[in-house]
């Protein structure tokens, strides 16, 4: 789940703090204050079999399999990220995110707080990062599928897209459950009027919880992630509101730059 943590925090607190000639270079500058305070996490140890509840692992596998069946979906989310000041005080940054996805080759993702709005467009040929309030955007050629584009964005341009794990959970190559140090069933909980089962996990240097909808549509409805590398243990949380049968327009993933927007270079790493 570390990828998810990095994706979410990056989407809310990093990219494009001010107009710069390079999107990737700018993203590297503006990290949460917690990063300056970070300490090495305790060394990961092999999971004790008694710490892994099979029911919790099976729930992740069922969710993963179901997400893999969704050819299209729309998400409207509420997010909250804790930033840590040098004196240890936590500051909470709330925001929203919006996803429109069509497998295998289309997405539009918008992440917004009161301070920033970022948009990511992918139409099967081009990946575009747009900062509408700043009037800057950058576009680069992209591979033919979402998963390949995620890899190129991360490895070549240093861009980790928000909630990237939604596209990767069903990938058997990820072997996510094998990395768990603990997994437990917390119990039944209601999120946004939807009955869910709550689970808690420890993986590497993070603790995370997930609320999965009960029934034949095991959708993740809420995620909370705690960073154990910081002594303040800052958290990120997101509530996910799903539409698994969205009506998509033909130009849903096409980026049309506003009249006064300026194209800038996307630097590679």
Short description:
The protein has 269 residues and is an alpha+beta fold. Helices cover 19% and strands 36% of the residues.
User: How does the overall form come out from the CA principal axes?
Assistant: globular
Distance between the termini: 24 Å
Strand order of the largest sheet: 7-8-9-10-11-1-2-3-4-5-6-12
Cα radius of gyration in angstroms: 19 Å
Q: State the helical fraction.
A: 10-25%
| Proportion of residues in extended strands | 35-45%
User: What pattern of helices and strands is seen along the backbone?
Assistant: HHHHEEEEEEHHEEEEEE
Task: Tell me about this structure.
The chain is an alpha+beta fold. It has a single domain, classed as outer membrane lipoprotein receptor (LolB), chain A (Clam). The chain has 6 helices and 12 strands. The protein has helices at residues 2-13, 23-27, 34-37, 54-67, 146-157, 165-168, and strands at 72-84, 90-102, 106-112, 117-122, 126-131, 136-141, 182-191, 194-203, 206-213, 220-227, 235-243, 262-263. A 12-stranded mixed β-sheet has the order 7-8-9-10-11-1-2-3-4-5-6-12, covered by helices on one side. It is globular, with a radius of gyration of 19 Å.
């Amino acid at each position: 789940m570390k990828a998810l943590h990095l994706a979410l925090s990056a989407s809310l607190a990093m990219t494009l703090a001010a107009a710069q000639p390079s999107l990737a270079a700018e993203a590297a500058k503006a990290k949460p204050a917690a990063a300056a305070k970070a300490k090495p996490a305790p060394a990961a140890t092999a999971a004790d079999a008694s710490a892994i509840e099979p029911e919790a692992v099976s729930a992740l596998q069922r969710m993963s399999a179901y997400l893999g069946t969704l050819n299209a979906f729309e998400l409207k989310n509420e997010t909250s990220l804790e930033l840590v000041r040098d004196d240890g005080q936590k500051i909470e940054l709330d925001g929203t995110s919006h996803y429109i996805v069509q497998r295998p080759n289309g997405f539009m993702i918008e992440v917004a707080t009161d301070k920033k709005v970022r948009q990511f467009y992918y139409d099967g040929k081009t990946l575009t990062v747009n900062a509408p309030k700043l009037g800057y955007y950058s576009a680069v050629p992209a591979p033919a599928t979402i998963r390949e584009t995620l890899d190129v964005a991360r490895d070549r341009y240093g861009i980790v897209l928000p909630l990237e794990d939604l596209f990767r959970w069903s990938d058997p190559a990820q072997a996510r459950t094998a990395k768990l140090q603990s997994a437990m069933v917390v119990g039944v909980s209601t999120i946004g009027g939807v009955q869910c089962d709550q689970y808690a996990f420890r993986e590497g240097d993070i603790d995370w919880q997930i609320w999965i909808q009960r029934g034949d549509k095991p959708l993740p409805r809420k995620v909370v992630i705690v960073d154990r590398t910081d002594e303040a243990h800052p958290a990120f949380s997101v509530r996910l509101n799903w539409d698994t049968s969205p009506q998509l327009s033909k130009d849903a993933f096409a980026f049309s730059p506003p009249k006064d927007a300026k194209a800038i270079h996307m630097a590679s790493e």
